[in-house]
Amino acid sequence: xxxxxxxxxxxxxxxxxxxxxxxxxxxxxxxxxxxxxxxxxxxxxxxxxxxxxxxxxxxxxxxxxxxxxxxxxxxxxxxxxxxxxxxxxxxxxxxxxxxxxxxxxxxxxxxxxxxxxxxxxxxxxxxxxxxxxxxxxxxxxxxxxxxxxxxxxxxxxxxxxxxxxxxxxxxxxxxxxxxxxxxxxxxxxxxxxxxxxxxxxxxxxxxxxxxxxxxxxxxxxxxxxxxxxxxxxxxxxxxxxxxxxxxxxxxxxxxxxxxxxxxxxxxxxxxxxxxxxxxxxxxxxxxxxxxxxxxxxxxxxxxxxxxxxxxxxxxxxxxxxxxxxxxxxxxxxxxxxxxxxxxxxxxxxxxxxxxxxxxxxxxxxxxxxxxxxxxxxxxxxxxxxxxxxxxxxxxxxxx
Length: 399
What we know:
Layout: H1 19-22, H2 32-39, E1 71-73, H3 89-103, H4 110-128, H5 132-135, H6 138-163, H7 167-171, H8 178-195, H9 199-209, E2 213-215, E3 218-223, H10 226-242, E4 255-256, E5 269-270, H11 276-290, H12 294-319, H13 328-358, H14 361-385, E6 396-398
Antiparallel strand pairs: 1-6, 2-3, 4-5
Helix pairs in contact: 4-6, 6-14, 8-14, 9-13, 9-14, 10-12, 10-13, 11-12, 11-13, 13-14
């Protein structure tokens, strides 16, 4: 999966990366690592809008009464000090207490909270804040996205392996190294540096981030652009919506996307939108389709990339991964994760388009900050997905 705006897959001494073959819509072979990196993470963005009581990490219904005393107990997860990512357990606990108050007497669900409430609240706050990379506690935000992504990947791996129908995932396992973690954090730091730089610097980053490009820190690596990221995740989500596990059902009109992306680029409509910024930037898609001025130039660049990526995203569930065997709650959680990630990419991509087309550096700073967080989210999701150590677990609530 290319779910972030840059290629943030983990480094590994015995696995090679082949972005050119992975990008071939004609069906060129992907390496096993590319299957894992791209295939299982198509909708990784994690936001829980469904009430799925009974999943791992749930607390009893009565626990919500003591909202002020709710804390989160974290099991082992990859973290190495010395980067821009800064743990803030107090912030996580405050978010947990707020979540518990919103739940009232309903059960507390860790999957809903960590995969949904945490990233969505942070993401919306970014688009509510002027110059968010300077104003918000970005080290803590990146840590929250890291937790959400990593444990979301651990969750999905468990569901895929449990079906017995995903031998590629089951057979592969590697823990994140300090080198890979540091490189991942440094890429986010570089984006945040552009987000807090001059108007020219942030707008140059915004323009570059729409399309694939070489990584300035390592020209042998490809940084995946937002157009490709969006199309891939769009195809990924549509495939599991249209082909649910046998005997299971998909919510009606869960997501509706144009058959021809050129009619509404970077746009889908969601039955229950979770990210507030999606509605804010919907008109930008119409301007792209209209093609006037700079919007026309961007449309001509974005649409062909998006269309090819949709095809690749659809191929994942027909070729490399198998959703058959998921129980209804797990299938709904996967849909929820996938649609919410697509929403975050949609808001980030369209805000980036508007910033470039209108030379709006203030908006560009928000878009760049969102992109940095989204990159950590997906990189960490990859890390969790391929970490098959038997002691992996989901966080729990303590009251």
